[in-house]
Write a structure and sequence with these properties.
The protein is α+β, with helices and mostly antiparallel strands. Strands 4-5-3-6 form a four-stranded antiparallel sheet, sandwiched between helices. It has a three-stranded antiparallel sheet with strand order 7-8-9. It is flat.
């Protein structure tokens, strides 16, 4: 049984592990977000988190995951996801409504029982207790939810790719799913009835399309994938002008107006690191403008690189 393996691996008494799994209501709940778009986060206790880490690293990551899942997997990022679509003129974005909240116990039980992991029912029941809040709510902020969500969507990803292959015929297209974001791109104009294909397939698997986050993009207008802007002239990735302007204001206030704010410095460093990972040219432009205002007490840019 899984409990025996965890006990040997973590050197924890089996009765304590069972007790930890049954106390599956030990979560801290809070909201994040702004502008009226708040999201409920359920953060597990240290005990529950320990069990979730073990399950992910030793069991759940062995379940099949499609190559079209570009979030939460090793080597994946919003940058890599956007880069896949950068060379295509036309992009369709849609979204799965209340993605994590729509994942049910039955969905997870189904993939576990059909897996090649040789799980008995007691193992499955234990996993459900550990990965679900109060044994019924798929928590947004847990360690195991990202990994499991991709495994739940495995058959959906493959079936959508097959449907798109049939629809497009010989026309080339690209498809990725970053968590709840579904992106399809092509150098041919994307037909609007593809949205119906996605909608029907989501319904088949127990999910709902988010109409408010379904839209088409093309060169001539802004193309933006998982928060990364694709330059229409060069197809290179960038963070967009709004984010650059906001950072310039922070740099000006911190380096030139000498406003003392340690939190602001952390934000600036984080933003610069992100921009550098997306676009070296945008980072270099900022460095050329603002590095001359540094002193020994405020070093934001490494002038030796």
């Amino acid at each position: 049984m899984i409990i025996d393996n965890i006990s040997k691996s973590l050197m924890i008494d089996k009765n304590l592990i069972i007790s930890m799994s049954k106390n599956n209501n030990k979560y801290k709940s809070y909201y994040i977000g702004n502008n009226g778009r708040q999201r409920l986060i359920q953060h597990p206790s240290k005990e529950i988190k320990l069990l979730q880490y073990w399950l992910v690293n030793n069991l759940l990551n062995k379940l099949p995951c499609s190559k079209y899942a570009t979030g939460y997997e090793p080597g994946c990022s919003i940058i890599r996801n956007a880069a896949i679509h950068a060379d295509n003129k036309y992009i369709l974005h849609t979204d799965i409504k209340d993605f994590f909240n729509s994942i049910t116990v039955n969905m997870v039980e189904s993939i576990l029982s059909k897996s090649n992991l040789n799980l008995i029912q007691e193992d499955i029941n234990f996993i459900i207790d550990v990965v679900f809040y109060k044994s019924k709510i798929f928590p947004t902020g847990s360690v195991s939810s990202p990994c499991l969500s991709n495994r739940v969507m495995y058959n959906f990803d493959l079936e959508l790719k097959s449907e798109l292959d049939t629809f497009y015929g010989l026309q080339e297209f690209k498809f990725t799913r970053y968590a709840d974001d579904i992106i399809i791109s092509s150098n041919y104009k994307i037909q609007t009835n593809i949205v119906d294909i996605i909608k029907n397939l989501l319904n088949k698997y127990g999910f709902e399309i988010n109409k408010n986050k379904t839209y088409f993009m093309y060169t001539g207008r802004q193309r933006k994938v998982t928060g990364i802007v694709i330059d229409n002239a060069t197809n290179k990735l960038s963070v967009g002008t709004h984010r650059i302007r906001a950072l310039k204001r922070n740099l000006y206030n911190y380096l030139i107006k000498a406003e003392k704010n340690e939190k602001n410095e952390e934000i600036i460093r984080g933003e610069l690191a992100f921009i550098k990972s997306v676009s070296e040219s945008q980072y270099s432009n900022l460095k050329n403008i603002y590095s001359k205002y540094q002193n020994q007490h405020k070093i934001i840019f490494d002038i030796n690189k």
